[in-house]
Specification:
Layout lengths: L1 E2 L5 E2 L3 E8 L2 E8 L2 E7 L13 H14 L16 H11 L7 E2 H8 L3 H9 L12 E2 L14 H10 L6
Parallel strand pairs: 6-7
Antiparallel strand pairs: 1-2, 3-4, 4-5
Helix pairs in contact: 2-4, 3-4
Length: about 170
Amino acid sequence: MLANAAGGRYACHMSICYVDSPVGRLAIEADHDAVTSVRWTATDERARNTSMTPVLKEAVRQLERYFAGRLKRFDLPLAARGTDFQKSVWKMMCEIPFGGTATYGGMAMALGSGPRAVGMACGRNPIPIIVPCHRVLGSGGKEGGFSGGQGLPTKRQLLALEGVVLL
């Protein structure tokens, strides 16, 4: 890894693989031994180097089990890049159980912040599904937003997979 002027690290050993899922084609990216990104991608996207590292193989295995209804909690090394506040929101999202939900306002109260700040952090989550931002709802059980896939239809599909019924 190369250090940047701010003391962070630049990724120099990135690996990527693709997975077709019920919510669309996903690109999973990893840096060494940790997942750094899950994103929706076009069917024609290709990478020059699609080496399947052990962490990518495990991420694919766990995602396949999740979509088959056989995995309730992901257990992968993650390396999401973001601010300390964003990381605290993402950590809290990982604590929302399969089939459960939380609200932007409830999370904001627990973090001593505001619901919009929590919503912005959810929208910047680089590892959706694994870090379950789809489980965060607006007040009164309203859907809120979702920046992945096809937006709210994808959020509804992920919640339905977990048995969550929105009114």
